[in-house]
Amino acid sequence: MEKVATRDAYGKTLVELGKTNENIVVLDADLSGSTKTISFKKEFPDRFFNMGIAEQNLIGTAVGFAAAGKIPFASTFAMFATGRAFEIIRNSVCYPKMNVKICATHAGITVGEDGASHQALEDIACMRAIPNMTIINPADSVSTREAVLQAARYQGPVYIRLGRAKVPVIYEPSSLQFEIGKGIQLEEGKDAAVIATGVMVAEALKAREILKEEGIEIKVIDIHTIKPIDEELILKAAQQTGAVVTAEEHNIIGGLGSAVAELLAEHCPTPMKRIGVKDTFGESGSGEELMKKYGLTAQDIVQAVKEVVKMK
Amino acid sequence: MKEKDLERLKKIAAEIRQDIIQSIHKAGSGHPGGSLSAADIVTALYFYKMKVEPENPKWEERDRFILSKGHAAPVLYAALARKGFFPREELFKLRKLNAMLQGHPDMKGTPGVEMSTGSLGQGFSASIGMGLALKLDKRESRIYVLLGDGEMQEGIVWEAGMAAAHYQLDNLTAILDYNGLQIDGKNDDVMRIQPIAQKWESFGWNVLEIDGHCFEEIIEALEQAEKTKGRPTMIIAKTIKGKGVSFMENAPDWHGKAPNDEETQIALRELGGVQG
Ligand SMILES: Cc1ncc(C[n+]2csc(CCOP(=O)(O)OP(=O)(O)O)c2C)c(N)n1
Ligand SMILES: [Mg+2]
To answer: What pLDDT digit, counting tens, does each position of B217-257 carry?
Structure first.
C-alpha cells in the first residue's frame, strides 16, 4: 500500500488553497520544514509569517488575523500548539469562536525517537474539553486534503491533528465522501464495530482481515471528526453489533474512546474496549516499535475484539 | 587558568564532540549542530567549574546544570558519561527503545540530569525555582542553565528573566549558546532577538559577552558571574553551530539530522580520530 505522511498532504493543500483564496494566511513557529507550511511560504511569501519559537504568540497572532477577516492556519508540533498555547486557544480562539485553524503535526507516539517530551498523547482530550472547538484527526493523506479544504470553508475554530510518519493511503480521491462531523463506515460486519481515528484506521482494516480468517466480521468506522462526533453512526453500529472497540493513537483518557464511551453509556450501553496509550508517557524508539510496545497494532485490536465479543 | 588545564579541557572537548557524532550516528537521528556549539561551554562547566559527585548524583551541596535547550542532550550525555555518572556504552544506545538515554533529557531515568527538558524555555524557568530554593536552604551551590538563541524567543524565558532579577538571584548563571541559527534559518531572519545584550541589561541582569569556544573567556566569565552579587548573570557566548565539523559548521541543515557512515568518518577524522 502506498504511504504518504498527512503533513505532506497538508503542505500541498495549503498551496492549493492559497491560489484560490487570498484570505488564507499561514503562521508557523520555527518548524515550517517539518510542518510543511514551507510549501506555502515558497508560493506566497507575503502571506506567510514565521513567529519564531513562541507558540503562545503564534496562536494569539492568528486570533488577530481572524478578527481582521483573514483565515489563519497556524502550525507547529501538536505538543506545543495545544500544550503551550492551551489557554489562548480556550479564551481567545474558542470563546469568541474565532475563525482560526490550528493544524498541528507530529501528534502521537509515532513521533518516535524524540521521546516523551515531543509525543502529544493528550491533545485531543485538551481540545475536546473546550466548547466551540472542532477536532479532525484524518486517517490518511487523501482525507487530510479534504479536511483542510473544508476547514477553510467552515466558520470557526478547527484543530486538525496530523502525524510525522508516512501512513497508508486508504481512500480514493474520487470516491471519498468526506464531511466534517460525519464518520465513514469503511467496512460492514455484524460481530463487532471497530471505531478508529487517525493512523489506527489502517490498523483496524488490517485487524478486519485477520479476524475474517477466524470467522469474526467487524464493521470498521473512521471517525475523522472527533468533535462534533457522529452520534448517529456510532449508536447505529453499537445497536447492530452489540460490541464496540475504539482505537486511537492517544491516551485512552479524554480522546475518541472517552467520547464513544460517554455516548454509549447514556444512550446505548454496550460492551466496549478502548485501544490507546494507557495513561502513561511515551519514550524514545522507532514509531513502529512504540506502536507495538504501547499496544497500538492490528493485533491489539484483534485481541480486544475477541474479548469484547465474549462480553456480549 | 594554567596552560595544562587548557590543554586538558581542549582534549576533553574534542572527545566529547566525537561522542556526540558517534552517538547520533548510531541513533540515526538527533541534533548535532546545537550539541557541538555547546561542547566547550559544557566541558568548562563539568570539567573545570562545577562541584558534582558522580558516585552521589543527589549530593546536596552540588552545583546544578540545566540544559534548557534539551535537544542538545548528546553533549550533556557525553559529559555525564565521561564524568562517570553512567557507563559510556549507554551513549551508543541513545534514542533506542528501552534505553536509558532518551531523545531529550529525562531526570527520572538518567543520573546527573537535573531537569527534564526538551520543550524550550521550561528548563530556564525551573532554574529560577531551584535558585530560590537553594537560597532558602542557605546553600552555596550554584545553578548553571544553558539556553539557545532560538529558545530565547519563548515568552517564558522573559517571564523567568524578570523573576530572576526581581529576586536578585545571584546564584544563577545563564549561558546563551549564541550560534545565530535555529531550525528555519538565522534568528535574524526568523525572529530577531537583537539587541540581546541590551535586553538582558534592561531586565536587570549582569551581562557578559564572550567567545563560547575560548576556554579562557568561558572560565573568566563563569568566575566573574560567581563574584557578582545581587543579580543573576547572563553570559552571551558567541558560538558556531556545528563547531568542529567543517560541513556542519553554520549549516542550518545540521540542526536535527544524523550523519551517515561516510559523514561520520569524516567528522571523526576532523575531530582527531576515533576513541577506543
Ligand atoms: C516549546 C518548543 N517549541 C518548539 C520546539 C522544537 N524545536 C526544537 S529545537 C528548535 C530550535 C532551537 O533553536 P536554538 O534554541 O537556537 O537551538 P540551537 O541552535 O542551539 O540548537 C525548535 C524550534 C521545542 N523543542 N520546544
Ligand atoms: Mg541557535
So the answer is: 999 999 999 999 999 999 999 999 999 999 999 999 999 99
> How many C-beta atoms surround the C-beta of residue B270 within 10 A?
17
Element (H, E) at A32: helix A32-35
- Answer whether A113 sits within 8 Å of B119, measured CB to CB: no
List residues in chain B touching A: CB distance below 8 A: 27-30, 70, 94-99, 101-104, 106, 116-121, 150-151, 153-155, 182-184, 187, 190-191
pLDDT tens string B80-92: 999 999 999 999 9
Residues A7, A162: contact at Cβ < 8 Å? yes
Q: SS in 3 state form for A61-104?
A: HHHHHHHCCCEEEEECEHHHHHHHCHHHHHHHHHCCCCCCEEEE
Residue B48 CA to residue B50 CA, distance in Å, equals: 6
Q: Directed axis angle between helix B3-27 and helix B261-270, to 10°?
A: 180
Structural domains in chain A, sorted by start: 3-168 (3.40.50.970), 184-306 (3.40.50.920)
All domains of chain B in start order, with CATH: 3-270 (3.40.50.970)
- Under DSSP, is residue B57 helix (H, G, I), strand (E, B) or coil? coil
| CB-based contacts of B58-62 (< 8 A; 24+ apart in sequence) | B60/B139, B60/B141, B61/B139, B61/B140, B61/B141, B62/B141
- Cα B31 versus chain centre, distance: 13
How is residue A133 annotated by DSSP?
Answer: -
Beta carbons of B181 and B211 less than 8 angstroms apart: no
Q: Which atom of ligand 1 is nearest to the CA of B181?
A: 19
pTM for the whole structure: 0.98
Answer whether residue A246 shows pLDDT above 90: yes
Please enumerate in sequence order all residues whose Cβ is within 8 A of that of B215, keeping only pairs 6 or more positions apart, or say none. Answer: B1, B6, B9, B10, B40, B43, B44, B48
Given this model, what pLDDT does residue B276 score? 44
A24-28/A48-50 β-pairing: parallel
Cβ pairs bridging A and B (under 8 Å): 91
3-state secondary structure of B223: helix
* Rounded Cα gap, residues B163 and B157, in angstroms: 10
Overall size of chain A counted in residues: 312
Residue B151, C-alpha cell as written in the block: 529558545
